Amino acid sequence: MYRNMFCLFGILGLAACGGGGSDSGTTSAGNSLQDPYSSNSSDYQPSQLRSSFIYSNSTITGMGSPQNATTIVGKLTYERNSERDVYLTGEDRFVILVDGVEVLPEMSGSSYYTFNVSEYGNNYEITWYRGDDVIAQSSFDFVPQAFDITSTYDGSAMNYTWSEQSNHIYTFVYPSLYCTKGNQSFNMSYSPTDDWRDNVVEGGSLSLELDAAFNTSESTLRSQYDSCDSTMDIIATRSDMTLVNSSPNMTVSVWAMTTDTQNIF
Questions:
Q1: 124-130 and 133-140 as β-strands: parallel, antiparallel, unpaired?
Q2: 130, 126, 168, 176: which is closest to 146 by C-alpha?
């Protein structure tokens, strides 16, 4: 459905930790314990692990009919290296409840655990258990609503419009341009700020000039490539959402995300 979960967690990582992941850094209870150098959660003490979850009401628009999926995706990482993904093993498990009803995860061989959930729930609960012990727990309500993007290209700028909802904040995330000709390719992303969360858009519309964003023009691109596509991610969050988190071992992001791809030529 969506490009993949690596993209979602990549966006979150860029905002939360600046991208990197080294084996030095934060000071915590887990930091004083020996590193087991394992991909199995049962080899770690809970304090050595961090759980991350993204609720995403994701939509694809632009080239083809709109598609939508609503998921909660979770993973574990080693607290001293955010790039070391850890699998749930032993007595560790994630439990997702929507309005008190448990949602079972999709079968997957990866370290990402995906739960298909309703976008119309009133309350969402996420719990990380080890046996009968609760390691970390979060709950939230008032999730952001899905939205479609209408996009046009006028020869010099990509233009995007959508219907704004009350109590929603809209932000654009690293739009990209991808061009190809045979084995040659051009791939570039753009952001006017270091943190995508600062790219707030008001009024339900956004215009992005090729020259300003990518330092090029259509004529220049046509002289070098056979085709070019642009991709834009718009994220909506809610200002009135209540998020309750019981532990620093768990981080939760909640958003509606629409990805629009349009053909430049």
A1: antiparallel
A2: 168
> What is the rounded CA–CA span in Å between residue 143 and residue 120?
8
Token representation of residue 30: 């887990």
Rounded to whole angstroms, the Cα distance separating 147 from 152 reads 17
The Cα diameter of the chain in Å comes to 64
Residue 224 is given by DSSP the state: T
Closest CA to 99 of 68, 136, 139: 139
Beta strands in 99-132 (DSSP E): 101-103, 113-116, 124-130
Whether the Cβ atoms of residue 66 and residue 59 lie closer than 8 Å to each other: yes
Rg, C-alpha atoms of the chain: 20
Half-sphere CA count of 139, side-chain side, radius 13 A: 8
Residue with tokens 């850890």: 86
Closest CA to 140 of 117, 173, 166: 117
Burial of 148 (0-12, 13-18, 19+ CB in 10 A): middle
- φ, ψ of residue 46 in degrees (nearest 5): -55, -35
Residue 150: CB atoms within 10 A of its CB come to: 13
Q: 47 and 33 in contact (C-beta within 8 Å)?
A: yes
| Spans of the chain below 50 pLDDT | 1-4, 14-27
Q: How far apart are CA 231 and CA 202, in angstroms?
A: 20
| pLDDT 10s digits, 211-247 | 999 999 999 999 999 999 999 999 999 999 999 998 8
